[in-house]
Design brief:
The structure is a single chain. With 206 residues, the chain is α+β, with helices and mostly antiparallel strands. The protein has eight helices and five strands, in the order H-H-H-H-H-E-E-E-H-E-E-H-H. The protein folds into two domains: 54 residues; 100 residues, Alpha-Beta Complex (Homing Intron 3 (I-Ppo) Encoded Endonuclease, Chain A), CATH 3.90.75. The protein has a three-stranded antiparallel sheet with strand order 1-2-3. It is extended.
């Protein structure tokens, strides 16, 4: 397998620094290959990287876990209530755009870019509609299982198009078995590389 073939398969999901170490090149050399080959990080990888950056941003100025506000347990004085009472939410008040129970909505997942139906169960709780339908017909979804679409169409909510399978089986169906044998071998190599990266620096008994 050539270096360029490895980069095409590994770059979208393998951390850049780890890939540089594996290929024996610096970041500038890797990015030159990446630019010429036109490969990019996968949507899932970009999502994880952006999420980490967002969580880290402003962390120094945030309240730490367990922080107690100075007015905890203190009642608002009558004078303060007069000042702010007009802007406070009244008991039972809801925003004008509050949806009714059993309302549906279509949202696009950042992880895979697919649209999914959601159903409102109650205020503040929306569930994936295909999971709601499955549970209505077959009962509670077992732990470690997912409900998937047989035809791959995430908007086809026919109960005949749904199946409940273990997460491991779902992962296999979504990845390696869909590809030619040569690419399957390369993906196995990638998996082994990721394990080496994860275990790098750990002691044998850790």
């Amino acid at each position: 397998m050539t270096t360029e073939q490895l980069i095409k398969v590994l770059y979208p999901t393998v951390p850049t620094r780890a890939l540089c170490e594996y290929l024996g090149m610096n970041t500038s050399q890797l990015y030159n290959h990446v630019y010429r080959l036109g490969v990019k990080k996968s949507a899932l990888t970009r999502y994880v990287q952006n999420k980490k950056a967002i969580l880290k941003a402003g962390s120094k100025s945030r309240f730490e876990k367990g922080h107690e506000p100075y007015n905890k347990g203190k009642k608002m004085s009558p004078a303060t209530y007069v000042k702010v009472g007009g802007t406070m939410w009244k008991p039972g008040n809801k925003p004008h755009n509050t949806r009714e129970e059993h309302a549906t909505s279509i949202r696009v997942h950042k992880r895979d870019g697919k649209p999914y139906h959601y159903t409102k169960i109650r205020d503040g709780l929306w569930k994936l509609t295909h999971r709601v339908l499955w549970e209505q017909v077959h009962g509670e979804i077992p732990a470690g299982h997912v409900v998937r679409f047989k035809d791959g169409n995430s908007l086809n909510l026919s109960i005949l198009n749904l199946e409940c399978i273990p997460m491991k089986e779902n992962m296999v169906k979504n990845t390696i078995q869909r590809y030619p044998m040569e690419l399957q071998q390369l993906m196995k190599l990638k998996s082994k590389l990721n394990k080496q990266i994860k275990n790098h620096g750990k002691k044998p008994n850790e």
